[in-house]
């Protein structure tokens, strides 16, 4: 029945009892069946078994022949899978084959079930599961599942956040997320689908980590919640990068704001105060101060915002900066102090100092970088302040003698008259004219004349206090204003100055015209209403009175109200 003649003849040649009966029995088997004899001789086969019969005869059928030989010796066998290749270009067929002793051990029955489709489906399922696993792992850092008790029942093999999978399976999900235990929203206890939920947790080292979680709740057949399943991706590096970018943008805006102040404010001293006021809330800091070098090389505080934690630690900080450190930090009981040196044309000219209160964050690398940029601009402003002072001094002083010029002397005189109530005893305004000065220039030239004027300036400085006003009004005319002095003392001061002029004789034009002083003084009271112009007029008239009487003397003008006082 459907067998090849060769097979049927071979079967009859062996003298099988009722070959038609065997053929009928083999044909009934739903799979492949064949009957083999010693040395793999094919005694009979149904149509499906002919492919296996061909394999038994082929070189590739060694395993099948070995199993048939074993069955002839009484040992049943099985080959799983038995692979067949029907022909060139055809797909392989797979069978589960059972090899059984048959006919009192003289024959072997081979029964095979086609598992090609089953095997293909299994391979496709394995491939699909692997693909799903690869995609899930590519889309996340770890996959997890929790039960109704909040414990992990599954963690992907890589583990999570420094924990191995073995450490987490069976552990409470609170190991990763405290909100699970506290009843808060947590992907590990999701009761509804969650997608791309950000949660900050602690890793095994105790460091903060940000997870992007997607989760699905799990329910049993009766609708009771039994846990959650999901995947997480660690986005800590991304969030920290975004935070750094945001901080950088804020610092750029702060720097631009401060630079705008530095550019737009016309008064350099006010620039420093404005810069301190801008940088303190922006960093933030408890306070800030700018220090600069004055013309004498002394450190002075040019601007301040906020209460200083102490002068001594601040001076220690500045000393380090002046000694060559570009940045310096000091931690004291008053907080964290930080300073940046300021420079102009590579020369140190001051410092930008800030402080934070105890318990606040120390100065970060980003803080230091920003303050270094600001300090660069402060250095330029410090130079502008110094330059402005130089210009003001040049505009208010006489270039030859270094004394106040007429304009600045009269302006300061107005200021002092406005607070005359503070004078103790009164004040005296001296007008001093250099006698016979023209003869010096005429006979010896202007260089000798300049020496004489410089010597006059020295004499006047020596005869006055640091807080007294001394000025060259122009040419050979000088003025001195002395506060807290009585009328008699004013006359004595005039004589002292007049006598000090004796050293000028060596610079005279000739012995017949010696250099000397003619001095007129206006005594001024603290309770009077006299104006500066009126006092100047009295001093000037007193001085010209001396000139008319022969020079080289002192005359003091006393207000009428004082003269009338008994």
Describe the structure.
The relative contact order is 0.05. α8 runs parallel beside α11 (365-396), α9 runs antiparallel to α11 (365-396) and α13 runs antiparallel to α14. The protein has a five-stranded antiparallel beta sheet, sandwiched between helices. Strands 7-6-10-9-8 form a five-stranded antiparallel beta sheet. The chain folds into four domains: 5-113, Beta-Lactamase (2-Layer Sandwich); 140-234, 2-Layer Sandwich (Beta-Lactamase); 244-393, 2-Layer Sandwich (Beta-Lactamase); 406-563, Alpha-Beta Plaits (2-Layer Sandwich), CATH 3.30.70. Helix content is 41%, strand content 27%. It is an alpha+beta fold and 566 residues long. The chain has helices at residues 5-13, 19-28, 50-57, 62-72, 116-139, 165-168, 178-182, 236-264, 268-282, 311-322, 365-396, 406-418, 437-444, 446-462, 487-500, 532-548, 560-563, and strands spanning 32-36, 42-45, 77-84, 93-102, 107-114, 142-147, 152-155, 194-202, 208-219, 225-234, 287-293, 299-305, 327-332, 335-344, 347-356, 427-435, 469-474, 477-483, 516-524, 554-557. The chain is rod-shaped, with a radius of gyration of 55 Å.
